[in-house]
């Protein structure tokens, strides 16, 4: 069959190719111009004063200067971090929304919540690790127990009398509290709060008896209002070299560490994720950030996005055993 040449068809084809090229150019241009359109919102999924908030603020100013655009820290606490994470997960993947999440928000809460409003693995992408946090078993200085052994003896002699606070159901201090109860063979009550700051205030006020503190109680330990009985890290920490680990005290292989870090909505361009990763990692190494993060007993942990994602998955596997054993479900 003889084909009939139609100049209009060629014009239409050229127009389509030209449109596609312009679209690709426009997308690339928009990405290369980022962040030029508006301020960047850094959602923190716990209230101000908690450890995720401290990690976010340790780097936000430096990253803002490096990017030449304002970063606005937006605290959206509640539901063990779900409220803030959900908001971030459902934001536009354009580089103008970042989530700073607690380690539990990524490694624990999604696995203990029957009806998550989003899929953490599918709807968020790892950007950068912020800090590796450990927990600290603290009690009031006027408590009748002065050592960990006395604390356990008191708890065993008074089942159900002691209570501990946490930043919320499914958070790492909650899971660590259940790990402690399981391995030590004690029964105490769990009181969830909307953030670690509120739990700390109720410990100081006498409304709960102990905390697995994520590092915000140190000033009260140093002032003598609180007593540090033990740390949950595998090894002793340089800032409290005299504080024994729970592993030393007989709770074998006890490790409640988690990694606070930064996430972006899934679909955020890889070039933006990589730029954020570079700038956050640089900020983490500045003396001011190191001092701030070590002030809560944590260590800055620069990583690639892939490394951070792998660490989070490893933490989730480690906590899975106690979650299953204690039948922990997030309300």
Structure description:
The longest helix is centred in the first third of the chain and has 27 residues, at 7-33. The protein contains 13 helices and eleven strands. Mean pLDDT is 90; it is low at 12-31. The protein starts with 6 loop residues before the first helix and ends in a 6-residue tail after the last helix. It is globular. Helix 8 (172-184) links the parallel strand 6 and strand 7 (189-192). The chain has helices at 7-33, 51-67, 82-89, 103-107, 109-112, 120-123, 148-157, 172-184, 196-204, 218-223, 270-284, 287-294, 305-325, and strands at residues 40-44, 71-75, 97-101, 124-133, 136-140, 163-166, 189-192, 210-213, 226-231, 258-265, 299-300. The chain is an alpha/beta fold. The chain folds into two domains: 39-133 and 258-325, Bordetella uptake gene, domain 1 (D-Maltodextrin-Binding Protein, domain 2); 136-231, Periplasmic binding protein-like II (D-Maltodextrin-Binding Protein, domain 2). Strands 2-1-3-10-4-11 form a six-stranded mixed β-sheet, with helices on both faces. A five-stranded mixed β-sheet has the order 7-6-8-5-9.
Brief write-up:
The protein has 331 residues and is an alpha/beta fold. The chain is 44% helix and 18% strand.
Question: Helix coverage percent of residues?
Answer: 40-55%
Biggest pleated sheet = 6 strands, mixed
Report the end-to-end length measured between terminal Cα atoms.
Answer: 71 Å
User: Which spans of ≥5 residues are poorly predicted at pLDDT below 50?
Assistant: 12-31
